[in-house]
Design brief:
Elements (H helix, E strand, L loop, with lengths): L2 H25 L2 H29 L1
Helix pairs in contact: 1-2
C-alpha cells in the first residue's frame, strides 16, 4: 500500500472520529465523545507516521 493511500485512510479515520465526537455531543453521550477523540488522536498519529515515511522515502 502506498504512503498516499495510508495518509488518505488516516484522514478518513480522523473524519470518522469527528463524526463520533459530534454525535456524542449532540446525544450528550460522554463515552461516544471520548471514543471519537481517541480515534482522532490515533488517526493523527498514523497520518504523521505515514507522512514521515513518505518524506524519508523521497530522499
Amino acid at each position: 500500500m502506498g504512503k498516499s493511500t495510508e495518509i488518505a485512510r488516516a484522514k478518513a479515520r480522523r473524519l470518522k472520529g469527528m463524526v463520533k465526537e459530534s454525535d456524542g455531543i449532540a446525544l450528550e453521550n460522554e463515552r461516544l465523545k471520548a471514543e471519537g477523540r481517541k480515534e482522532q488522536a490515533e488517526a493523527r498519529r498514523e497520518e504523521a507516521l505515514a507522512r514521515a515515511a513518505r518524506g524519508a522515502s523521497d530522499r
